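Sample pair:
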Amino acid sequence: MSLESVRNFFSLKAPEIDVIVTEQSSATVQLAAEAHGVDADQIAKTICLRAGDETMLVVMSGMSRLDNRKFRDRFGPKPRMLGGDEVVALTSHPVGGVCPFGLATPLPVYCDVSLKRHAIVVPAAGAINAAVRIAPDHMAELTGAVWIDVAQEQVAVSDTPA
């Protein structure tokens, strides 16, 4: 049902976007990057969080980590990740296939500015082996997402010894 709800979402809102189903699992950032032939940071991971009474989806680049301080500055309460059963109940998507498309329950969607490092990102599409290729701004537009900055700053790693 979850993959089907995502396909229905795109057939209604963006029929030019194809849902890509792979043989191999793309349930983690690394697996998704390998399955779709992209850099791990280009994977758009979706996390389901609760802050106080608000439950939300935050989509961020694959190598980004949530910055609790930035999150609290933006939302107030400390973020709490939801358990797998609760995520499935709210989104209809299994963990590893969670995305902001075709949701069972309307949830606020927030896109982290880390996604803007890429012209195209690859979020899951409702199954552990399904995804789409989409421009970050288009994803935000389709899902009614609000842009936020809640990712930790990335430190450039140099391959030259110090």
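The CA atoms of residues 21 and 130 lie 4 Å apart.
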